[in-house]
Design goal:
The complex is a heterotrimer of chains A (242), B (284) and C (346). Chain A has 242 residues and is α/β, with parallel strands linked by helices. Chain A contains nine helices and ten strands. In chain A, strand 7, helix 6 and strand 8 form a beta-alpha-beta unit. Chain B is globular and about 60 Å long. The chains are: A alpha/beta (242), B mainly alpha (284), C mainly alpha (346). Chains in contact: A-C, B-C.
């Protein structure tokens, strides 16, 4: 199966600081991948290069078999890449429903269809009761979901989620995990998640890519990673079992 | 040969005068990010205060200093009463400083009337250098300008106070954790910027006829100076930006009249703004 | 209220004031109804001068599109107004017959203003020029236009301005409507302003308006959702330039001259003040605000004692509006009559 997203030798240097170095990565359609690593390992920079917010120093990126290395943020969003930022970026003054409706406007669909799609997304992101609540009054977790909803309304094919469960309750975190699994399984969306919450990652049962100092350290399932000595060294500073 | 020298001399002087006029704006915009649309009005106020003071017998230099202090005080009052509540909303500060310009100009019109005023130049005539005669007063203003700008830059980069201010600008949160009083720093910067504008207005007063809108010719040019030079680049940016604008004006004025030169300069400045919005000098 | 239900729970994002669309339509009917009735109940100065104020109201509406909806502050509306006025004046002056040249003049004014605004908008927005720098550019634009019309005095009449004939409009081969008299001029202007209001209001409630508001609310999010933000900003700027040019062209033929004071920073500032006081988010509010403040200015400037202080008062009111009454008169009216508001934004 051809990869939906592929990078080759992706590198970013900031004025003498190496953020990402020679990262080659592939993601299939409908696949969920967790990207983890200590702070400063280059996770957000990596995501930013895929969404177009940061220009790579070297390397290339392909999306749906098409090279997007030089495409703008706007164009990448138009071809199906959606990014959820670390700090939720929604339309604070608009209600949840209005938020979704606005995001769907780009697709130039008839109003009735757009409304139906928005209602359906509200259900998916569990904000049906908050449809008329202005976004600024939603809880932090609900704003994260709303932002994901915006991406769904925009009909993206790749979701880049930057720490979606930050600030969420345990229950919200679990719901988010279910949401991600549903999106991948039932809607064939590909998802890259940057996360720190170990429980969330374990429950998600998705393949993991670990970055360290901007380089790819290891890739594998949760169990494989947990046993890996090198990973333990990086995270825990030990090689023995915890 | 004479023309080249005269153009060169004119350009240097215009650059320094413009740099001085723009400096207050550069400080406020560069350090605390407020687009002070009232900058021109502060210049005008400095000129009027100087005029009024000299009219009442106070010698020129003390008049200028007193005016500058007065304008600084006005700026401080405005900051304290209104501006400080809006630092996180740049458009509002823009509109409010514009309102400051409106109100100040009207008050000037009411108090001082709309007739053109004149402050006699304290130093007349010209200095005779072998190849060219430079206007004496303008040269002195130029010298004062470069001294003050360089001096301020020195304080900013080499003294403890300067370091504190720079720390505050780069990271407000950390600075306040370190015990630096952010609010006071903002007041200091704003008042200092106003003081500078008033000082420039007072010193420039003898060179132009004073009317309620005189400062405004410097407003847009000052913005271009700061934008072209690079926001936050107090020394190199201000001087280079002034050189670009002033030099361009001088050269173009040779080929056509003053007005067309100004139009052309604005046009070119907008081009530069578009193609290099971060200014010529970037980074610290 | 039937109109309320029509828009129902689906609150239009374009109006950042919740379910008040029904109320605004009602207010519009009242305002335009009043304006339509005035020449029927009175004659004289009011009928003469109101078309001018209505056109200033149109100018104010052009800024609402840009500032209220788009969040783009501009001190350049006077530049487009002046382009419209001078284009009209020049066409009328040089055209052979005074009849069809009126339409040509309007077309020239509108096209000229629209062209300049689209070019400048595209030039600056496509490079992602920061909004704060954009304000400085519009300021420079006002100055450039003002200086230009003052300088090229052979063409533009310089400081004195340009005399412009009152128009005579042809409607079909047999009908000629002379606008030399107050009444026909009044209703012609009204017949232009009302449909434009309705059309623009509808546009801002539709997809275009919602996207423009979205850009104002969170530009980065709009970019990351794939909206061509620079294009929308350019269109908004172009539309506001076009309307300002139209207002200028008609104004010139009413006031009988185009003058450097139609351009410049002071007049641009005046437009900003009208819109701030009337209500920057409200087309109708800004329209009414312009009429009210302009007529008040006219009236007060004839009173010796107050005349000197009126601009100062305006400046202070302006400060009050920015600090306290962010949505101007429209906001005040709304909170007196209006329902619970959703989605109020800056």
């Amino acid at each position: 199966m051809a990869a939906l997203l592929r990078t080759e030798g992706l590198t970013k240097h900031f004025r003498g600081l190496v953020a990402v170095e020679d990262l080659s990565f592939a993601l299939a359609k409908g696949e969920v991948r967790c990207v983890i690593g200590p702070n400063g390992s280059g996770k957000t920079t990596f995501i930013s290069m895929i969404s177009g917010h940061v220009e790579p120093t070297a390397g290339r990126i392909w999306f749906k078999e098409r090279e997007i290395t030089r495409l703008s943020v706007v164009r990448r969003a138009q071809v199906g890449i959606g990014r959820k930022f670390q700090t939720p970026s929604v339309f604070e003054g608009l209600s949840a429903l209005q938020n979704l409706e606005l995001a769907g406007l780009r697709l130039a669909k008839p109003r009735a269809e757009r409304m139906r799609a928005s209602e359906s997304i509200l259900e998916t992101i569990r904000l049906v009761e908050q449809r008329d609540t202005p976004a600024q009054f939603l809880s932090h977790g609900q704003r994260q979901w709303l932002e994901i909803g915006l991406l769904l309304a925009n009909e993206v094919e790749l979701l880049l989620l930057d720490e979606p469960t930050a600030g969420m309750t345990a229950e919200e975190t679990a719901a988010t995990g279910q949401l991600v699994q549903h999106l991948a399984a039932d809607r064939s969306l590909s998802v890259i998640i940057i996360e720190h919450d170990i429980n969330f990652i374990r429950e998600l049962k998705a393949p993991i890519t670990i970055l360290h100092l901007g380089r790819l350290l290891r890739e594998g399932s949760y169990d494989e990673i947990a046993e890996d000595a090198q990973v333990r060294q990086v995270y825990l500073g030990t090689t023995g079992h915890a | 040969m004479e023309t080249v020298v005269s153009v060169f001399a004119d350009t240097i002087l215009i650059t320094l005068v413009l740099a001085f006029a723009a400096f207050g704006l550069a400080i406020i915009y560069g350090l605390i990010g407020v687009i002070n649309m009232g900058h021109g009005a502060m210049l005008t106020l400095g000129a009027y205060f100087t005029w009024w003071s000299t009219q009442h017998g106070v010698p020129f230099v003390p008049s200028v200093l007193l005016s500058a202090i007065a304008v600084g005080a006005v700026g401080l009052a405005f900051e304290h009463i209104i501006i400080r509540h809006f630092y996180n909303r740049p458009f509002d500060t823009l509109l409010l400083t514009w309102a400051f310009f409106l109100v100040t100009t009207e008050v000037i019109k009411i108090v001082f009337g709309t007739d053109f005023r004149n402050v006699p130049s304290p130093v007349d005539g010209a200095i005779d250098l072998e190849i060219y005669r430079v206007p004496a007063y303008k040269t002195i203003v130029g010298a004062v300008s470069i001294s003050i700008i360089a001096g301020t830059a020195l304080v900013f980069f080499k003294t403890a106070l300067g370091i504190k201010i720079r720390a505050m600008i780069q990271n407000r949160e950390v600075a306040s954790l370190l015990g630096l009083n952010i609010a006071v720093m903002y007041k200091l910067v704003f008042a200092f910027g106003a003081f500078m504008a008033g000082l420039a207005g007072g010193l420039i007063a003898p060179m132009y006829s004073i009317d309620p809108y005189m400062g405004n010719t410097f407003l847009v040019r000052s913005f271009f100076v700061v934008i072209i030079g690079g926001v936050g680049q107090l020394l190199a940016g201000t001087l280079f930006g002034s050189f670009a604008i002033g030099g361009l004006e001088t050269v173009l004025a040779l080929f056509s009249d003053q007005v067309i030169a100004q139009i052309a300069v604005f046009f070119i400045a907008v081009l530069i703004l578009r193609f290099r919005p971060q200014g010529v000098f970037t980074g610290r | 209220m039937t109109m309320q239900v029509q828009h129902g729970g689906h609150v239009a994002a374009a109006s950042s004031r919740g379910g008040w669309m029904g109320g605004e339509d009602l207010a519009a009917m009242v305002v335009f109804g009043l304006l339509a009735a005035i020449p029927l109940v009175t004659s004289g100065y009011a009928v003469y001068i109101l078309p001018q104020y209505m056109l200033l109201g149109l100018l104010a509406m052009s800024l609402v599109i840009l500032w209220g909806y788009g969040g783009i502050v501009s001190f350049g509306q006077a530049a487009f107004f002046a382009i419209g006025a001078y284009a009209m004046g020049l066409v009328m002056k040089h055209a052979a017959l005074p009849i069809n040249s009126a339409y040509l003049g309007i077309l020239a004014g509108v096209a000229g203003a629209a062209l300049v605004s689209l070019l400048i908008g595209h030039f600056l927005f496509s490079a992602g020029v920061r909004s704060t720098y954009f304000v400085v550019a519009t300021l420079a634009l006002s100055i450039i236009v003002e200086q230009t019309v003052k300088s090229f005095s052979d063409i533009t009449g310089g400081w004195n301005g340009l005399y412009v004939d009152r128009m005579t409009l042809t409607l079909g081969p047999l009908v000629q409507l002379s606008l030399f008299d107050d009444m026909p001029m009044y209703y012609t202007v009204l017949a232009v302003v009302v449909p434009i209001y309705v059309a623009v209001a509808a546009l801002m409630r539709a997809r275009f308006g919602k996207i423009v508001v979205g850009i104002r609310e969170n530009e980065d999010r709009m970019l990351a959702l794939g909206f061509n933000v620079p294009a929308y900003k350019t269109l908004a700027f172009g539309l506001s330039g076009l309307l300002a040019g139209l207002a200028g062209a008609l104004y010139a033929t009413h006031a009988s001259f185009a003058h450097p004071s139609n351009a410049g920073v002071l007049f641009s500032t005046q437009v900003v003040i009208w819109v701030a006081i009337g209500g920057r988010h409200s087309l109708l509010g800004a329209f009414a605000g312009a009429i009210v403040v302009a007529s008040l200015s006219n009236y007060l400037s004839s009173i010796e004692a107050i005349q000197e202080y009126w601009p100062l008062v305006q400046g202070l009111v302006f400060i009050a509006v920015i600090v306290l009454f962010r949505n101007g008169l429209a906001g005040v009216v709304e909170s007196l009559f209006g329902k619970k508001r959703h989605g109020r934004a800056a």
